[in-house]
Amino acid sequence: MLNNQAHSSNSITSFFKRLIAGELSTLAMVLLMLPVAILIGVAIAYGGIVAAGGILVIIVGIPLVLAIVAYPIFGIAVFMVVAFFLNYVSEFVPPDTPTGIILDGITYLLIFGFLLKFKYDRDWSYFKTPISYWVLAWLAYNFFEAINPESPSILAWVYTVRTVAFIMLMYFIFVYQIRSRATIKVLFKLWLLLALLAAISGFQQENFGLFPFEKTWYYQDPLRLSFLYINGHLRKVAIFPDPVTFSYNMVVAAVLCLCLIFTKIKTYKKVLLGLAIPFFFLVMLYSGTRGAFVLPPAALAMLAVMNFNKKILAVVITSGLMLTALIFMPTSNQFIKRFQTAFRPSDDASFNVRAENQKRIQPYILSHPIGGGLGSVGIWGRRFAPNSFLAKFPPDSGYVRVAVEMGYIGLLLFSALMFVILRTGINNYYLIKDPELKMYCMAMVLIIFVFNIGNYPQQALVQYPSNILFYLACALLNVTLRLDKQEREQQAAQQAPLLNV
Q: Which residues cross the membrane (predicted)?
């Protein structure tokens, strides 16, 4: 009996191996798949779209879930793609559809895969860095805000903590799972490809008009339309939820391209990167986001300070002269005129309104050391506590929002976190010896710096994919130094026997 069971088990195993290898005959495949096809057809005939969706989930969803857990780099790539395109795809579905749970689900899967791997490869050295300690402190403070007595609603905290704090756990996933130079290159290529697709979408919206579903999205919310329609022109968002996210992502993509040009890559790749930079800046203008216009010169200034050499100095000086000419040149072009006002804040009515709002909220901030509660301002404040004082306050600035929701204690903690991240990145840049990894680290420092500058006039770190890219950049600061140390240790170990001889 046992022999018969073993024989049966071996036969089944052999059958599946032949099926996967494609060694079954055509007749055998037809006989095998015909009942499956009939079953699917009957299910869709009786169950309609619900049955079709369920079958699709089984066929595609289950393998995808397993792949995200088992292959973390694939999971991170899927996470980035979904973060870029989820808002764009959500324009096809009813406005109240909770599409955000898709990103939450991927986050949980990546965390689950990390925990499984960490169980068998428990190496705490990956996380023994200043950034990790401060991220944990910031996470703890965010969870402490759940019991803030001033908080108008615990539901506002629940909805806000997902994108403000919970997404920070991805920093630890990135630090632990990214273990090779090749993986960094793959993620950079994917990052730039997604940014390029977004830029093409923005270019299409400005120069060829909106697709019907895009026009529906723009006009279905009067409040959104009033925000996006300024001086007779519709601000473009491309595939993103708002023009701020669009413009900031174009700037960081251009910064990444600039830094990669200084690495040892083929000439045609440098040409392509060089052509992508002005294209990213061009579509950035279509967003009409003044806060983004000051970011390129800020990035160039930081680049010149960190890597002072003739080649980079020439690039910075040339760019500075072009920027100066662009700021002061007389023009009737609406995009250039709006760009110029970013460097003349006294002439910018919206800047003056923000300044007044910040002055008005200062007494509240000073009298509430732990703030009014996470989620008390913005969309969740209006939804869960519409009659509260903070629900009607437009925070605009990411730093102001932290001060209002989490108090001046939270603002000090958040500012300390940003300082530690930048200080660690700058220190690591000078510690890294490998030129390629050194430039990767510099690119991440500049991107983090850009996001921090942009977080003052706007909220730069709360929307997808900006929040994911920010913590990916933070993780790569430590990953690049770790890889550099590992490669130097390997070289030293290889050279040791030769020296002994």
A: 27-49, 56-89, 101-118, 130-148, 154-174, 186-203, 246-265, 272-292, 312-329, 364-382, 402-425, 437-456, 462-481
